[in-house]
Design a protein that fits this description.
With 402 residues, the protein is mainly β. It has 2 helices and 27 strands. It has a single domain, classed as TolB, C-terminal domain (Neuraminidase, 6 Propeller). 3% of the residues lie in helices and 36% in strands. Strands 16, 17, 18, 19 and 20 form a 5-stranded antiparallel beta sheet that branches. A 4-stranded antiparallel beta sheet has the order 1-27-26-25, with no helix packed on it. 50% of the residues are buried.
Length: 402
C-alpha cells in the first residue's frame, strides 16, 4: 500500500475523492451517455412523495444534495442522517426524522450549507437546511457517519458520529429538543486520518475506514462524560482504498469492507479472509471519485442470499446499482457472473457520484446520487426534478427479485 508524504499531496493525488473544495470541479469534459435503466428491475413504492407528480422522477425521495457521501439510518429510531460534501466553503449534515413522508429539498445549489450559494440573497422557501455545518478551516469533505447504538460504550449512546475526510476530525451530534448539540470528539491525528467511511457491526460497534493507509479502526472512548473523547483501535489493515464498512445482519458477525478498486473483503473475527467476497474490478472505472463505492444487504439476507452494490462502470463512468448472489456452497464467496443490473444513471462528469446504498427501516433501498459534478452543479441537476442526479432515491428492489 503506497504511503503519501502529506495530506496535501495525498488529496491532490486522488483528485479529492469526495469532491473537496480545491478539486471539486472535476473533469471539464462530460462522459459519454449511458443507456437508460431497465424499468422492470425495481418498482417505485406507492408512498414515494413524487409518484404521479408531473415533471418529477418517481424514484426521488429527497432532492437538493451535492455529493451525499455516506448516509445512514439510526438503528434505534429510524432517523436518517446525510453527510453532504460542500463546494468551496461549507460542509453539512442533513437530517430527516423517522416517519417522514419524504420530499425534502436540502437546498443545493441554491444554498451551500446554511448560506446562499454565490449570492448575497436567495429564496429559501421550502428548503430543509442542515442541522450542522462546518467551515473549510476545519476540513474539506464531510463523511457521514452513524448513530452509536452499541452496548460497549453507553456514554456514546445516541450520539451521531461523523467526520471529515481531509482533516480527520470526528464530531458528535445529538438532538436536544428542537435544537442540536455538538462537540469535537477527535482532533486531527498524526499521521493524518482520511476518513472515507463509518460503519457498524451487528452488535452496534462503530468502525471507520482510513483511506490513507487501508486500516479499519474501531471506535472506543478514553473516558466517560457528556461528550466523551473517542479513541481508535486498529482491528485490521492492508485494504486497498477502503471506502465502505458494513455487516450483513445474518448473525455471522462478519464485517464487509468495500475496496474502491473493485473488491469486497471479509473481516471475520479479526481476520481478513484471503479470498475476496466479490471481485468486479474489471467492470468499473477507478479511482478519484469513481469505483466500487458501497454494498447493502437486504433484510433477511441469510435466507435470500443476495445483496446490492453501487459502482461506476467502465468505460463511460455511469452509476450502476446491481444485485449479486452469494455462492450456494460458500457463504464467503459471491458469484460475479450473477449480476443483475437494477439501475443505471448516466454521469456527465467523473466526480460527484454519491454512491451510498442502504436499506431503510421500511425495507426499501435508498440510493445517494451526486449532482453529476463539474463544480457548482453547472447542469442544475440537484434542483431538477426530471433527473436522478443530486438526489436521495427510494425504490423497491425486493418485490421483484428472481
Amino acid at each position: 500500500m503506497k504511503r503519501f508524504p502529506s495530506l496535501k499531496i495525498f488529496v491532490a493525488a486522488f483528485t479529492a475523492l469526495l469532491g473537496a473544495a480545491g478539486c471539486s470541479g472535476g473533469s471539464s469534459t462530460p462522459s459519454a451517455p449511458a443507456p437508460p435503466s431497465p424499468s422492470t428491475a425495481y418498482t417505485v413504492p406507492p408512498d414515494n412523495p413524487f409518484l404521479g407528480v408531473p415533471g418529477y422522477r418517481p424514484e426521488i425521495w429527497a432532492l437538493g444534495v451535492r455529493n451525499p457521501w455516506r448516509f445512514s439510518f439510526d438503528q434505534g429510531t429510524g432517523d436518517l442522517y446525510i453527510g453532504d460534501v460542500g463546494q468551496g466553503a461549507t460542509e453539512e449534515i442533513d437530517y430527516q426524522p423517522a416517519g417522514s413522508r419524504g420530499g425534502q429539498n436540502y437546498g443545493w445549489n441554491v444554498m451551500e450549507g446554511a448560506n446562499c450559494y454565490n449570492s448575497a440573497t436567495c429564496n429559501t422557501v421550502g428548503l430543509t437546511l442542515p442541522v450542522f455545518t462546518y467551515a473549510h478551516s476545519e476540513g474539506c469533505s464531510a463523511t457521514g457517519g452513524v448513530v452509536y447504538r452499541g452496548a460497549a460504550h453507553p456514554e456514546l449512546q445516541g450520539i451521531y458520529l461523523f467526520g471529515d475526510f481531509c482533516s480527520g476530525r470526528v464530531w458528535g451530534l445529538r438532538k436536544n429538543g428542537t435544537g442540536w448539540d455538538n462537540a469535537l470528539l477527535l482532533p486531527p491525528q498524526v499521521p493524518a486520518l482520511n476518513i472515507a467511511s463509518f460503519g457498524e457491526d451487528e452488535a452496534g460497534n462503530v468502525y471507520l475506514a482510513n483511506y490513507a493507509n487501508g486500516d479499519i479502526l474501531k471506535v472506543g472512548t478514553t473516558a466517560p462524560g457528556v461528550w466523551p473523547q473517542i479513541s481508535l483501535t486498529k482491528v485490521a489493515g492492508g485494504f486497498a482504498r477502503p471506502v465502505h464498512v458494513d455487516h450483513a445482519g445474518d448473525g455471522s458477525g462478519r464485517i464487509f469492507v468495500v475496496e474502491q478498486t473493485g473488491r469486497i473483503r471479509i473481516l471475520d473475527n479479526g481476520v481478513v479472509l484471503p479470498t475476496p467476497f466479490l471481485d468486479i474490478a474489471s467492470r468499473l472505472v477507478c479511482c478519484g471519485e469513481q469505483g466500487l463505492l458501497s454494498v447493502a444487504f437486504p433484510p433477511g439476507y441469510a435466507a435470500k442470499g443476495h445483496f446490492y452494490v453501487n459502482y461506476t462502470r467502465a468505460p463511460d463512468g455511469a452509476t450502476v446499482v446491481a444485485r449479486h448472489h452469494v455462492s450456494a456452497s460458500d457463504a464467503n464467496a459471491a458469484d460475479p457472473a450473477s449480476e443483475e443490473v437494477i439501475l443505471t444513471v448516466p454521469q456527465p462528469f467523473a466526480n460527484h457520484n454519491g454512491g451510498q446504498l442502504a436499506f431503510g427501516p421500511d425495507g426499501h433501498l435508498y440510493i445517494g446520487t451526486g449532482d453529476g459534478g463539474g463544480g457548482g452543479d453547472p447542469q442544475g441537476n440537484a434542483q431538477n426534478p426530471g433527473t436522478l442526479l443530486g438526489k436521495i432515491l427510494r425504490i423497491d428492489v425486493e418485490s421483484v427479485t428472481n
